[in-house]
Write a structure and sequence with these properties.
Layout lengths: L8 E5 L5 E5 L3 H9 L14 E5 L5 H8 L4 E5 L3 H12 L2 H6 L1 E5 L2 E2 L4 E6 L18 E7 L1 H8 L6 E4 L5 H6 L10 E5 L4 H13 L3 E5 L5 E2 L5 E5 L2
Pfam families: Methyltransf_21 (PF05050)
InterPro entries: FkbM_mtfrase, SAM-dependent_MTase, SAM-dependent_MTases_sf
Organism: marine sediment metagenome
């Protein structure tokens, strides 16, 4: 991994038995996903769900969904270092993989096809196609739309989409026009600025979704929310 010398990792075992190797800065994501339940405040992943984890990073949410007996999880992560760790964490939990199928895919999602700059960050959870701390630090990655990817995978029904894509959530939704016609649940991180938040809400309104806003501690709020739970049907 290209960042081994720059990032400190640790091995952890969660209360539900999930084993993971994560970066020290990513420990806060464990709190968000497992304890504050920012992506499941209004509706948890259910047994038999088809789950799309957009911005899977090292697999924290994907493995939790597997523990909750989702039928299939598509774990989407474009950065090669994160993707390597994602695969390692999946392989470290063979029992979960016997319960749920986790399919990791190394690609970025938005509203275009081809190649895109993925701006590098010292923090593994902050690589982004939407903006850069240093515009000179980037790698080129493959990019697709969610609609096109699901069509390629022959997945016609989705129950739950979790999304944390560092300011690009509205672009991902713009590439999911067919997917958003379904009755499904969306859990989206929108703490990267008003442009992303407003763009996401506009698309949800246009597609007939109801939604609520939540703080980083999983508390419902109408102001300055960082996460959105949305549903239809």
């Amino acid at each position: 991994m290209s960042k081994k010398s720059a990032i400190e990792y640790c091995d952890i075992k969660l209360p539900n038995g999930v084993r993971m190797r994560i970066s020290i800065p990513s420990i806060n994501e464990i709190r968000e996903i497992y304890f504050w339940k920012v992506y499941e405040a209004s509706r948890a992943v259910k047994e038999g769900d088809i789950v799309i984890d957009v911005g899977a990073e090292v697999g924290t949410f994907s493995l939790k969904a597997a523990y909750q007996k989702a039928a299939k999880i598509i774990a989407i992560e474009p950065h090669p270092d994160n993707f390597e760790m994602l695969n390692r964490n999946i392989e470290s939990n063979p029992l979960l993989c016997s319960i749920a199928e986790i399919q990791p895919i190394q690609i970025a999602l938005a509203n275009i096809l081809g190649k895109v700059k993925l701006y590098d960050s010292e923090y593994p959870g902050s690589h982004s196609i939407a903006g850069a701390v240093d515009p000179n630090k980037f790698i080129m990655v493959d990019i697709d739309t969610l609609d096109n990817l699901l069509d390629h995978l022959k997945i016609s029904k989705v129950n739950f989409i979790k999304m944390d894509v560092e300011g690009a959530a509205h672009y991902v939704l713009q590439g999911a026009t067919e997917t958003l016609k379904q009755d499904l649940h969306l859990a989206i991180a929108v703490y990267h600025g008003d442009r992303e938040r407003i763009g996401v809400l506009k698309i949800l309104d246009e597609n007939g979704f109801e939604y609520k806003g939540y703080t980083t501690f999983g508390q419902q709020t109408d102001k300055n929310f960082k996460f959105i739970q949305a549903w239809k049907g």
